[in-house]
Amino acid sequence: MISRKNLYFFFKQTPEMKDIVTPLKNLAEVHGFHLVHSIEEANIIVSVGGDNAFLQAIRKTGFREDCLYIGVNTDQLGFYTDFTINDQERMIQAMKNEELEVRLYPVLEVSVNNEKPIFCLNECSIRSNVIKTFVIDVVIDDFAFETFRGDGMIVSTPTGSTAYNKSVRGAVIDPTLPSMQVSELASLNNNQYRTLGSPFVLGPDRTLLLKVVQDGNDHPIIGADNEALSLRHAKDIRIQLADRQIKVLKLKTNSFWQKVQRNFL
Ligand code: NAP
Ligand code: MN
């Protein structure tokens, strides 16, 4: 078993959060973990906060393949947070049995205008920032599939399927299926314009190319999870499942479907 002992805590640097995290740090040290002060030295990264904090922790630490991520919620359990701050002993126990509790989550690799790819854990969203509709040519593996006209599109991972994707009636996808789901934001459908109109799911070897038609209304906001990319102009957005997956520590007794039930039913 790989020895994972170098722990890095990722949280919002406020006095309140520091007070919350201090006992957790002490507990980790008592149990033989080594607290490190830089992300580079870490092989376990603990996010303290909600799902939004977890998404930030993953992004700010670079979607590390060689790290184990742990989400500790300060409130209720979330989708990426399997532990709460009041659950500390249980968390230490789970960490000691690392191999039993690790899940791999697929992530998206997104390249805009052929630039260096970025990763997404929930979704990549493309939305218009103008009042008029904007137009996207949707290409699957070099095959021109449809031309979309409307507000935008969401491409979500399985774990992201319960987030933005679900709000637009996308399906909830089991994270054991490496796949990406494409859903529409208010597509225009009439005798002139036609899109599939329902969300669709692509397998792990597909590449999706969204070509923003350059017609003067081509000003999308591109979102990677909870951050907007600072891009003035986007022409080609290429999305595929990344080769890497992230490792997340989970309680065996808290499956994805239990989370879905707890949160929605
Ligand atoms: P936010 O706007 O503060 O929160 C969105 C809500 O989604 C929060 O309750 C958040 O949980 C929850 N959430 C995050 N990831 C989730 C997941 N994988 N499954 C189920 N729920 C999830 O923004 P945020 O907290 O930074 O989260 C960013 C996410 O918000 C984006 O990735 C996108 O999926 C989603 N979003 C949704 C809509 C919509 O539904 N119309 C619009 C924009 C963005 P916590 O409270 O634990 O953070
Ligand atoms: Mn939030």
From TrEMBL:
Pfam families recorded for this chain? NAD_kinase_C
The EC number on file is: 2.7.1.23
Note whether Hydrolase occurs among the keywords.
no
Predominant cellular place of this UniProt entry's protein: cytoplasm
Q: Which reaction is recorded as catalysed by this protein?
A: NAD(+) + ATP = ADP + NADP(+) + H(+)
Give the top-level enzyme category.
Answer: transferase
Q: Does the keyword Kinase apply?
A: yes
Question: Where do the catalytic residues lie?
Answer: D51 (proton acceptor)
Q: Which domain of life is it from?
A: Bacteria
Its Gene Ontology molecular function terms? ATP binding; metal ion binding; NAD binding; NAD+ kinase activity
Q: Where in the cell is it found?
A: Cytoplasm
Task: List the cofactors.
Answer: a divalent metal cation
Q: Can you name a GO cellular component term?
A: cytoplasm
- One GO process term, biological-process aspect: NADP+ biosynthetic process
Q: Which UniProt keywords apply?
A: ATP-binding, Cytoplasm, Kinase, NAD, NADP, Nucleotide-binding, Transferase
Q: Which family does it belong to?
A: Belongs to the NAD kinase family.
PANTHER family the record matches:
NAD KINASE, NAD KINASE 2
Which NCBIfam families does the entry mention? PRK03501.1, PRK04885.1
This protein is called NAD kinase
Annotated gene: nadK
